[in-house]
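Hey, can you fold this one?
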Amino acid sequence: KAFQNIFNYPYYYPTAKGSFEARQAISQYYKKFGQEVNPEKILLTSGLNQSYLYLLKLFGSVSSSTSTRESSSNQILIARPHTPALEEVAGFLNQKIKYFDLDPDNNWQIDFNSLKKSLTSKTRAVFLSSPHLPTGAIQNADTLTTLFEIIKGKNITVIIDESLSDFIFDKKEFPISESLVNSNQVLITLHTLSNGFALPGLKLSWITLYGPDAATNQLYQSLEYLSDTFLNLNQLSQTVLP
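Sure. Predicted structure:
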């Protein structure tokens, strides 16, 4: 029926955020797991790689051989091992990635010694996936709580790719605990139809922001500006989603 409506009435209302109806449907999806998500803190993209592109652009800086430029560069720390797509997108942006390690002897939880060594005054975001690609490990609540404690007051955003969370078949809630979602720090999560629902052809992913309104509103405006440059999420995917 949704497909037929598009062909009968091929309307087009471009919006950088993504249609409100689609964002509201995503909000309702999270609500099934007891998680409240404001549709006005959700931004749609055409895929995870585009979400990566926006966030690397927002939190990282173009690498340069000049010491002056490098000294003022922002940094985004990425958990290692990681999906190769991150390096490909970073290369596209001419960005140099900085890493911290996950601990294979502790079920691939964050190696906090490695993280602390990698953190600098230039760090603006910490990126990891949970469930993790390629190991499948989930960063547990204690690990994430410790991570938030380490970066508290440092103007660092935590970015979690949770796009494999639908493969936790016995889950009662998402792997990110409610206490972190409701904390006073900025958290960004990523999801996609490709991984979660085996619908790669619809090309629809989303970025969700949590945290204080002052900080998340500013980040959301920046993401909306980046998205407005492309407007490449098709009307059909947004209409079918609800």
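The beta strands are 42-45, 75-80, 98-103, 109-110, 123-129, 157-161, 187-192, 205-210. Let me know if you want another pass with a different chain boundary.
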